[in-house]
């Protein structure tokens, strides 16, 4: 197995040469040219002063230059800190400051966003710590200009992803080149990539979800189709035009793509669409997929373990198909293993019993950047990563994800997945979506429901309570329903995530009689 990205790309350029590596709507690049461009960039970066151990903030959308810069930095031993294009001054300053970033690469005119103004809003002492900033047009010129790179630095921390930061400051999660390659090979094997495979990158490369979609294809010689700015209509057009076989996206986006189609033939080349349930309700996703003959499977991943870590099997010889449309899955690496542990007793649990998921996989992070103590605490003594997720195991390689441990509820002495209650609440009259959190009422933890309703619907919470009592065990029935216009959210690289901790604070204030709309 290749241990560096440069080794793998050199191999791919000899095997696939002029075949397309990355395809955008109005241009494409072959494996051979991608190899040449990344070598040129590495040479120019070295002349500019990039050194092994430096960190560069890569603030670009999905595009060829994003990939070229990553590969060039990897050759030099420079770590890329991926930056979401939706970030603004506060978040970018945090990346530069806590990430100890020395270089910045960005696209000043992208989507009409005032990147220069965003940088001007950052504390000057922070921006002065940068050696230099390079713009997209400069990168394009350097990539085309021949320049011999220095000797390859070897395997090292190649890229960091940020955790979602829904409850605290995001962590920077560091992955090595060899770890990225190993995971890419496992993805290609698990999803049966072949010469006809065409991968649609519908999630941003700056997050682990989009990056794993990219790496699993690109690093195994399969073309990646992407665009800097996308929407359901443009993605559907790419599916039609390029005969897409696979994509991996959040449930809401996949549903929106199908809603734009009026012909099931649009999806005739699609072999598998994997979904992560980021949106609070799955809506008509499964019915629409059946109508369009679009194969779906649930996924699982994290910044620490990489995305596409697991997917529910579609072949009965591989695992239990009864959980096909649930998050989690069969671990893509054959040597990976999963187990659950009781969070209170610390004892390992049998198959089928909910507890904290622990996963052993070659795709795990090398570290939380500059946080050795946090890194040590993240793993068990025998090398399993403590996911902080609630779930249960079908086997030692297949599992079902239920919720974040911090979101799970201990109700009536039982560990309860809030999604179970949310599903029942979303079936109530007038309810579009629901979020369930726990709050203290006396000496007990009780469920509180926050709901979004259909326009014009007049909520009668007492009726909702009565219906819930007929459908749920008494300890699962929400003690209070609160109608909101929107859920509190935070933007991550892959989606808009609901801030459960804020809902918990609101729920407690309600029960304490201190809640106010302000």
Automatic annotation (TrEMBL):
<protein>
    <submittedName>
        <fullName>Acyl-CoA synthetase</fullName>
    </submittedName>
</protein>
<feature type="domain" description="AMP-dependent synthetase/ligase">
    <location>
        <begin position="15"/>
        <end position="369"/>
    </location>
</feature>
<comment type="similarity">
    <text>Belongs to the ATP-dependent AMP-binding enzyme family.</text>
</comment>
<dbReference type="InterPro" id="IPR045851">
    <property type="entry name" value="AMP-bd_C_sf"/>
</dbReference>
<dbReference type="InterPro" id="IPR025110">
    <property type="entry name" value="AMP-bd_C"/>
</dbReference>
<dbReference type="InterPro" id="IPR000873">
    <property type="entry name" value="AMP-dep_synth/lig_dom"/>
</dbReference>
<feature type="domain" description="AMP-binding enzyme C-terminal">
    <location>
        <begin position="420"/>
        <end position="492"/>
    </location>
</feature>
<dbReference type="InterPro" id="IPR042099">
    <property type="entry name" value="ANL_N_sf"/>
</dbReference>
<dbReference type="Pfam" id="PF00501">
    <property type="entry name" value="AMP-binding"/>
</dbReference>
<dbReference type="GO" id="GO:0006631">
    <property type="term" value="P:fatty acid metabolic process"/>
</dbReference>
<dbReference type="GO" id="GO:0031956">
    <property type="term" value="F:medium-chain fatty acid-CoA ligase activity"/>
</dbReference>
<keyword id="KW-0436">Ligase</keyword>
<dbReference type="Pfam" id="PF13193">
    <property type="entry name" value="AMP-binding_C"/>
</dbReference>
């Amino acid at each position: 197995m290749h241990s560096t990205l440069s080794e793998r790309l050199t191999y791919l350029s000899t095997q696939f040469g002029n075949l397309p590596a990355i395809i955008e709507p109005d241009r494409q690049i072959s494996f051979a040219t991608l190899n040449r461009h990344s070598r040129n960039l590495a040479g120019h970066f070295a002349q500019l002063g990039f050194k092994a151990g430096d960190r560069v903030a890569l603030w670009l959308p999905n595009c060829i230059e994003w990939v070229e810069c990553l590969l060039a930095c990897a050759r030099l031993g420079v770590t890329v800190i991926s930056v979401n294009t939706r970030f603004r001054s506060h978040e970018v300053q945090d990346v530069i400051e806590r990430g100890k970033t020395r270089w910045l690469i960005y696209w000043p005119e992208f989507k009409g966003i005032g990147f220069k103004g965003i940088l001007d809003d950052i504390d000057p002492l922070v921006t002065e710590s940068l050696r230099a900033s390079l713009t997209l047009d400069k990168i394009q010129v350097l990539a085309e200009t021949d320049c011999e790179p220095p000797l390859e630095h070897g395997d090292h921390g190649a890229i960091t992803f940020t955790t979602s930061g829904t409850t605290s400051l995001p962590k920077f999660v560091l992955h090595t080149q060899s770890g990225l390659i190993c995971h890419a090979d496992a993805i290609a094997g698990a999803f049966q990539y072949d010469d006809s495979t065409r991968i649609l990158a519908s999630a941003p490369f700056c997050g682990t979800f989009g990056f794993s979609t990219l790496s699993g294809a690109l690093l195994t010689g399969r073309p990646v189709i992407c665009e800097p700015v996308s929407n359901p209509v443009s993605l559907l057009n790419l599916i039609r035009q390029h005969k897409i076989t696979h994509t991996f996206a959040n449930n809401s986006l996949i549903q929106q793509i199908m809603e734009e189609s009026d012909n099931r033939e649009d999806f005739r080349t699609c072999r598998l669409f994997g979904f992560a349930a980021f949106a609070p309700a799955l809506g008509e996703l499964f019915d629409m997929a059946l109508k369009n003959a679009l194969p779906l499977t649930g996924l699982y991943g994290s910044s620490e373990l990489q995305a596409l870590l697991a997917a529910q099997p579609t072949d009965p010889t591989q695992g239990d198909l009864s959980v096909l449309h649930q998050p989690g899955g069969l671990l893509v690496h054959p040597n990976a293993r999963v187990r659950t542990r009781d969070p209170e007793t610390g004892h390992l649990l049998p198959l089928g019993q909910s507890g904290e998921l622990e996963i052993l996989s070659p795709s795990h992070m090398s570290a939380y950047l500059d946080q050795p103590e946090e890194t040590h605490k993240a793993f068990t003594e025998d090398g399993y990563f403590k996911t902080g997720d609630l779930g249960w195991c079908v086997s030692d390689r297949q599992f079902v994800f239920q919720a974040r441990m911090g979101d799970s509820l201990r109700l009536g002495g039982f560990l309860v997945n809030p999604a179970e209650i949310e599903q029942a609440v979303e079936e109530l009259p007038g309810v579009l979506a629901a979020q369930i959190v726990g709050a203290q009422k006396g000496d007990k933890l009780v469920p509180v429901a926050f709901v979004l309703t259909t326009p014009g619907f007049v909520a009668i919470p007492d009726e909702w309570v009565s219906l819930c009592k007929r459908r749920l065990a008494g300890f699962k029935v929400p003690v209070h329903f609160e109608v909101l216009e929107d859920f509190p959210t935070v933007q991550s690289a892959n989606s808009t995530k609901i801030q459960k901790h804020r809902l918990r604070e609101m729920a407690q204030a309600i029960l304490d009689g201190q809640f106010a709309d302000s």
